[in-house]
Amino acid sequence: MIYREAGDFKTSYAIDSQTFSIRFDRWAYYVLLVVAFGVIPFLINDYWANAVFVPFLIYSIAAIGLNILVGYCGQVSLGTGGFMAVGAYACYKLMTAFPEVSILIHVLLAGGVTAGVGVLFGLPSLRIKGFYLAVATLAAQFFLVWLFNKVPWFYNYSATGQISAPERTVLGHAVTGPATTAPAKYLFCLTILFGLAWLARNLTRGTVGRKWMAIRDMDIAAEIIGVNPLTTKLSAFAVSSFFVGVAGALFFSVYLGAVEVTEAFGIQKSFLILFMVIIGGLGSIFGSFAGAAFLVLLPVLLKNLLVGQLGWATDLAAHIELMIVGGLIVLFLIVEPHGLAQLWRVAKEKLRLWPFPH
Amino acid sequence: MKKTFATIVAAAIAAASPAAADLVFPSLSYRTGPYAPNGIPYADGFADYMTLLNERDGGVGGEMIQVPECETAYNTEKGVECYESTKGMGSLAYNPLSTGITYQLIPKVSQDGIPLYTPGYGRTSAANGKVFEWVFNYPANYWDGASVAIKYLLDQNGGDLSGKKIALVYHNSAYGKEPIRTLQELSKKHGFELIELPVDHPGQEQKSQWLQIRRDRPDNVLMWGWGVMNAVAIQEAVNIRYPMENFIGIWWSGSENDVKPAGDGANGYKAIAFHGSGMDYPVYEDLKKYVLDAGKAAGDGSNAGTVLYSRGMYAAMVLTEAARKAQEISGNSAITAAEMREGLEALELTEERLTELGLPGFAQPIKSTCEDHGGPGSAMIQQWDAAAGAWMNVSDYIEADAEVLDPLIAEDSAAYAAENNIAERCN
Questions:
Q1: Rounded distance, CA A213 to CA A204, Å?
Q2: Is B305 found in the same domain as B269?
Q3: Considering the entire predicted model, what is its pTM?
């Protein structure tokens, strides 16, 4: 009844091509923004920031980044963990080399450095496809982790190979280091996520995104109609790596504060983010958020439920949690192989017809 | 959808918080994952000793002890979540049993004002109390361990190690890299050649490292391993017929779980230890009566007396003794985290007190001061007897080489102080 196009008249091209074409969607989006920027910062505490919101926001950035590459451009990558490590180490080197420059600039520059590395490792994609490309990016994953372990310059010759983030401020509030307040941490990540998600959404529905999708759907046909595979594939690698690098920089500097490359950016991280993209839905910005929420929030929720609420032993709960999450992944993929985003799309279609489905 | 989720989690957190008046010592344990074989006995020992005090003495100074457990799987992200979810419970001290999580928590606990107790692990330079106000790592740290091992080898070789080759097989993480700087200094001082062989997490694949050992034939192998890596390394050493008595592990590579899989082959393997093990201590009578036989044990009770169980018990014993000291200093029984820190800093654990606790000769006496959070730093060498299925002590407590370690600790802690703008205390 309320969820429908009827009565919502488009009087200009700009209005016609807006992201949320249904009034109800638009309002829901504005309300979400108001809540995210205006309400949550006043309610958030350390636990909610560090265990729930900050990891969710950062993984969302990484998932959007990988979705651009895998979902929109069709290039399978298993190197996400390695690219996050590039972002983290670039951010660390910049933070310690230029302490007077704003951390926001460092985070974006770290994304830029990662974009460069991503393009470099994207070059093989011009020759190889599919599983073979996945293996090539897997090599990137192992090489990058090995590099950050091997060359002491990257971790400023610290005795343990750990990098730790010194305190840096934005507008007078600490956003890295132990003195950071929960709202500062949250708002810093949220602002970056908002900017990047907006960018991703608009990139993917413009010329650039259409070229990516053309390459994904059939690269030879795309080439015949005039899409240059070199620039298209490499731009996808660059943009995707930029997002992933920013996520890695935030993961290190804002979320954890100290990382060690093998543990934080190992192959598990690559798989985790790939699963987020697959479960959320390939080729969907909403899907990236949904996938990140599913894989970050569900384990925390289950843990609180099983250990906190039901008082189960921690090891039993940890094992059951793995089984539940794994079972749900299988279930979702059987019921809806196109991910949570497709479920959402179907639900919206149904809503349009409701309450008269015939 | 988001809202219902939020309310469920909020309710779950509210339900998980214990009553505020108790002494709360969260146990960030790991009973799952590749490090579980080592994490389980430690967590059991820690919890069982606390249960014993609750059941036998009614807690410490009339206050019951709570040990909320949180599963970290030796993973730093989960460690952060566990820290944040338990710090609001009035937690008095953290003992995460992970060097990675310790590095993560050092700045956080310093900010939040909660002591961090890392016996035999964590950041070595935290021994310098002038810089690390909230961190304690007595009785011994990794650099002590490295120095003790070298001193033992000096002793075995008539005081001369020049021209010898010593290999270090280490877990390629903050933990495994800790001793390298010390060993490099020591190799300069004593003239031995150091071969560094990193093993990546989780450590199941070590063929190439042991092939290199077979080729280079080092006179001794030192190991900084943890979890499955230990058992795999010992098995590989058996496979290449490396003489076991020349193979020395740090205290984290010297538990029953590490040597038993290799069977008789592991006979003669040595490890460093900073406390005793086995069930010959009088405290086990009470432990059996009040905890194990009463069905209140944290695990299945099968780990009692093992090396890591003893170490968990050791950590629990030190923390509760410090809590007792804190109650004495502050005059009230319901202490705060800040008072707990005072207790840890004023802790004096004597031989007599250990005997009173039913643990005579279990560990070295400790006397903590404002400057010294590192303790005596001495350790002994134990050797595995596969036929008896027990660890035998083959040396007395060996003092670490302070001449080499003190400047290193001063240098590393000064670097931390400079990075974080910390002014030295205790002046």
A1: 9
A2: no
A3: 0.89
For A256, the closest of B11, B76, B84 (CB atoms) is B76
Domain boundary among B358, B376, B394: B376
Tokens at residue B300, please? 């299945």
Q: At B60, phi and psi to the nearest 5?
A: -115, 120
In the stretch 29-68 of chain A, residues with CB closer than 8 A to chain B read 46-47, 50-52, 55
The DSSP secondary-structure symbol of A166 reads P
CA-to-CA separations, B368 to A326, B129, B251, B371, in angstroms, rounded: 48, 9, 22, 8
Interface predicted TM-score of the whole assembly (ipTM), two decimals: 0.85
Question: In whole angstroms, what is the distance from residue A114 CA to residue A102 CA?
Answer: 19
- What is the length of chain A? 358
Looking at the structure, tell me whether residues B240 and B384 fall in a common domain.
yes
Q: Which residues, including other chains, have CB under 8 Å from residue A291's CB and lie 6 or more apart?
A: A63, A275, A276, A277, A278, A279, A280, A281, A339, A340
- SS3 (DSSP) at A322: helix
Cβ atoms of B266 and B223 closer than 8 Å: no
Domain CATH for B384: 3.40.50.2300
Residue type, B270: K
Cβ B72 vs Cβ A260: under 8 Å: no
From the CA of A309, how many Å to the nearest CA of chain B?
Answer: 5
Q: Do A260 and B88 touch (CB under 8 A)?
A: no
pLDDT tops 60 at residue B16: no
Return the structure tokens found at A34.
Answer: 């108001």
Reported confidence tier of residue A254, pLDDT bands at 50, 70, 90: very high
Residue A22 token pair: 């249904």
Residues B325 and B402 in one domain: no
How many angstroms away from the CA of B65 is the closest CA of chain A? 18
Interface of A with B in 264-323 (CB under 8 A): 264, 266, 297, 300-301, 303-305, 307-309, 313-315, 317-319
Q: Which amino acid is at B161?
A: L
Count the Cβ atoms, other than its own, within 10 Å of residue B188: 11
User: Percent of chain B, pLDDT > 70?
Assistant: 95
Same domain, B271 and B282: no
Are residues A356 and A8 in contact, defined by beta-carbon separation less than 8 angstroms? no
Lowest mean pLDDT among A130-134, B39-43, B239-243: A130-134
- Beta partners for residue A30, in sequence order: none
- Are B71 and B91 within one domain? yes
Range of the domain at B297: 5-141+277-376
For residue A7, pLDDT beyond 80: no
Contacts for A167 with CB less than 8 Å, ≥ 6 apart: A174, A176, A177, A178, A179, A180, B420
CA B415 to chain centroid, in Å, comes to 24
Q: How does pLDDT run across B210-253, given as a tens digit for each residue? A: 999 999 999 999 999 998 899 999 999 999 999 999 999 999 99
Q: What is the mean pLDDT of residues B368-373?
A: 90
Residue B63 exposure: Cα atoms within 13 Å on the Cβ side: 23
Enter the tokens of residue B289: 């009566």
- Domain end, chosen from B376, B398, B418, is at B376
Q: In the prediction, which pLDDT does A3 show?
A: 78
Confidence at residue A1, expressed as pLDDT on a 0 to 100 scale:
62
Q: Name the residue facing B71 among A46, A162, A314 (closest C-beta).
A: A314
Domain count along chain B: 2
Q: Pairing mode, if any, of strands B220-224 and B165-171?
A: parallel
Are A204 and A221 in contact by the 8 Å Cβ rule? The answer is: no
In a domain, B413, yes or no: no
Per the prediction, chain A carries an average pLDDT of 90
